[in-house]
Amino acid sequence: MLKYEILKKSKETKARLGKLSLPHGEIFTPVFMPVGTNATVKAMWTDDLKDLDVGIILGNAFHLYLRPGLEVIDSFNGLHNFMKWDRAILTDSGGFQVFSIRNKKVEEEGVKIKSPLDGSEIFMTPELSMKIQMVLGSDIAMAFDECVHPDMDEKYVEESIERTYNWAKECKKYNNKENQSLFGIIQGGFSEELRKKSAEQIVSLDFEGYAIGGLSVGESFPVTKKILDAVMKYVPEDKPRYIMGIGTPDLIISAVENGIDMFDCVLPTRMGRHGTALTNYGKINLKAGKYKFIDKPIDEECNCKVCKKYSIGYIHHLFKRDEIFGKMLLTYHNLHFLLDFVKRVRDSIYKDEFLSFKKECLDKGLITLESF
Amino acid sequence: MLKYEILKKSKETKARLGKLSLPHGEIFTPVFMPVGTNATVKAMWTDDLKDLDVGIILGNAFHLYLRPGLEVIDSFNGLHNFMKWDRAILTDSGGFQVFSIRNKKVEEEGVKIKSPLDGSEIFMTPELSMKIQMVLGSDIAMAFDECVHPDMDEKYVEESIERTYNWAKECKKYNNKENQSLFGIIQGGFSEELRKKSAEQIVSLDFEGYAIGGLSVGESFPVTKKILDAVMKYVPEDKPRYIMGIGTPDLIISAVENGIDMFDCVLPTRMGRHGTALTNYGKINLKAGKYKFIDKPIDEECNCKVCKKYSIGYIHHLFKRDEIFGKMLLTYHNLHFLLDFVKRVRDSIYKDEFLSFKKECLDKGLITLESF
After folding, report:
1. Which of A291, B160, B187, B369 is most deeply buried (CB count within 10 A of its CB)?
2. Is B38 close to A309, i.e. CB distance below 8 A?
3. Separation of alpha carbons B168 and A273, rounded Å
């Protein structure tokens, strides 16, 4: 179902520019995928996502399984028609959500949890995850994996990557390649050795793309970078590579530098709803009193429809009054900012100027490469 | 500042079609004014208001005086520039808000209240109200009036209309006619006699327009109609007439029938944020479980961008998950619906078909003329 083509390789780093062809459109990579957990990218009109040139969004198998439920999605012929989004969708397998639940029982066949809705038992298995994603009808499905809590010891992580491997095999069995592409997920915690092992296991199953899971879960920036560097050696070059749950400019730069093509994160939308704006000179919290009188756009270098029209002082006021329109404006700006940032990353690879672009970002304070 | 022209009078009723020329544009009347209390029509992009052909919105002197405060609005050169709305604005005097506060002291010169923000004393006077509205720079300012609680006895109402009369005189004194039009407000509770007296007093001051205040405050529909009928006899025909705080199709029809030209109400936006949709066949609450599977638009006769694209089932899901996008969609639809309804009212006056339009609305269940 999926076609991935490398258009250009950076001479300076492992960064690459690519084109991903999916049933619902073509996407240039590196690509940022806005998160649409509940069949909506929060506070955004679908048409505005298109105006921002969003080619792919992320949907969430577990959330949508709970509500509205498979019966509803099925009666609407899938997520695309339900939410009226005719471009590509990647669905998360539900692994991350299931493992975020405190009371769970991990078994060899899957994970038993109580439904957050009504307390009934849910047994999330590779088969169920694949079934949900098939009903959702996403362009790309993710294999069901075990997301290990960062505090777990290496012994546990070692056992868990075996489960992730077995579950990946199961997912392949249930994947209908004609309708949906399937990505495998590499786990292994913060051990370079286990990451290598997990990568070799998952890659041996020959997926259409590979994801790195279990990063950006609270570890320090150098650890993220170290693991990323270690694992990427074992991921085939000719397949799209996706790092899950990252979306700060810092991490995006590091990921791209290591040859990553895809990323998703709630950061721009969540920050936007809470009053923080991404700018070319770093983040700013528009709720701060000092912005009350400022009759300037959020970012004078930004040409989004928010920055072209509205002032910081006005948006500050909207947040002080907890007005929905404030959340709408900042969500739009932040998505525009991050999508435009990734576009500039692509341009820099195309022009073989990735490292000078990175330096420019460092000089401005847009990235620090220290923390996130 | 204001020019009002009657374009057509209904042969069957007192309804009339008019044109109101204001510094920020021309508006055809009868007109519905969406409410933008805090310098935003809640959950709406300003550009979407324009797409809906909104020519005038309502701003709120008291809310904006509290936050962001006059100093901020002044530094932005007024409300139009602050919120980036270049069409007309009418500002409420703050009377209604001040009288909604429980602990207040009504004096002959104004009303003393404690600020809901910090408890400091605010003495709201006609002079202060006019000063606020001047800083806001609205096209139409409203005189500061006493909004009497509907439970007050006739003795109190009689005294209060004298205050409203005196305050109206004060407001005229502070009104700079070159920059801003000023409307007087007729009060008088539910007494036909006091309404007559208040109307005569206010009209004697020769305002550029007249508003009926103190209706739609919980009284029954027949009472609203009776008072409206009683008071309109004393309001000059050649001036725009505004009934404050109404916005149900029932009340709009009754108001227009009595020769009213303008109305405002939070109803379509507030209902929208709470999951209720206005339709040609009455209101529906999209949160109801029965809508879960419905793959149809809210109103098949509606041609707004929400009804052209999204299903009831999808919007139901968004409300179940308390998603902002649900509020955005229903706010848009409801405003479109009410604005379109008023446009159809205007068309019916133009074609001298107002009564048959009213009958059609009754037959459909869009209005009941019984309650609201």
Report:
1. B187
2. no
3. 43
Residues B180, B140: contact at Cβ < 8 Å?
Answer: yes
Name the closest residue on chain B to residue A70, using Cα atoms. B293
- Torsion angles phi and psi, residue B182, rounded to 5: -125, 130
CA distances from A165 to A180, A260, A339 (A): 20, 21, 33
Under 8 Å CB pairs connecting chains A and B tally to 111
Q: Are B310 and B300 in contact (CB under 8 A)?
A: no
Report residue A196 as tokens. Answer: 């290598």
By C-alpha distance, the chain B residue nearest A289 is: B68
Q: What is the ipTM of this complex?
A: 0.97
Could you give phi then psi for residue B9, rounded to 5 degrees? Answer: -110, 135
What pLDDT digit, counting tens, does each position of A201-244 carry? Answer: 999 999 999 999 999 888 988 899 899 999 999 999 999 999 99
Residue A41 pLDDT exceeds 60:
yes
Q: What is the residue extent of each domain of chain A?
A: 3-265, 272-364
Report which of B115, B125, B172 is spatially closest to residue B146, judged by C-alpha positions: B125
Q: Is the peptide bond before A116 cis (omega within 30 degrees of 0)?
A: no
**pTM across the whole model:** 0.97
Preferred mutation among A317, A323, A332 to probe B, highest tally of B CBs within 10 A: A317
Amino acid (one-letter) located at A312: I
Say if residue A30 is preceded by a cis peptide, omega within 30 of 0: yes
Pairwise CA distance, residues B65 & B59, whole Å:
11
B293 to A42: CB separation less than 8 angstroms, yes or no:
no
Smallest Cβ distance to A72: which of B38, B43, B292?
Answer: B292
| Minimal Cβ distance to B83: which of A295, A305, A314 | A314
Contact call for A83 and B314, based on CB within 8 A: yes
Cis peptide before B30 (omega within 30 of 0): yes
Active site residues of A: 92, 264
Q: In this structure, what token pair is assigned to residue B292?
A: 């879960």
Beta-ladder partners of A284: A277
Determine, for residues A327 and B325 on separate chains, whether the beta-carbon distance falls below 8 Å.
no
Can you tell me the distance from the alpha carbon of A355 to that of A317, in angstroms, rounded to the nearest whole number? 39
Closest approach of A290 to chain B, Cα-based (Å): 12
A292–B323: do the CB atoms touch at under 8 Å? no
Residues in chain B, overall count: 372
pLDDT greater than 70 at residue A131: yes
Give pLDDT, residue B372. Answer: 42
CATH code for the structural domain at B3-264: 3.20.20.105
Q: Strand A16-22 relative to strand A3-9: parallel, antiparallel, unpaired?
A: antiparallel
Residue among B63, B34, B19 nearest B332 (CA): B34
Provide CB contacts within 8 A for A11, sequence distance 6+: A352
Helices B249-257 and B221-232: crossing angle in degrees, nearest 10, is 20
Query: Is B40's CB within 8 Å of A325's CB?
Result: yes
Per-residue pLDDT at A372: 41
Helix/strand/coil for A105: strand
- Are B203 and B168 spatial neighbours (Cβ–Cβ below 8 Å)? no
| Beta-bridge mates of residue B89 | B57
Which residue in the set A76, A83, A316 is minimally distant from B295, CB to CB? A76
Helix axes A154-174, A192-204, angle to 10 degrees: 10
Rounded Cα distance, B328 and A222, in Å = 41
Class of domain A3-265: alpha beta
Token pair for B160 = 């209060």
Distance from CA of A147 to the nearest CA of B (A): 25
Q: Tell me how far CA of residue A326 lies from CA of A167, A287, A336, B305, in angstroms.
A: 43, 11, 15, 22
**Alpha-carbon torsion angle A301, A305, A311, A316, nearest 10:** -110
Judge residue A42's burial from the number of C-beta atoms within 10 Å of its C-beta, 0-12 exposed, 13-18 middle, 19 or more buried.
Answer: buried
Q: Rounded CA gap, B20 and B176, in Å?
A: 19
Supply the angle between the helices B126-136 and B154-174 in degrees, to the nearest 10: 50
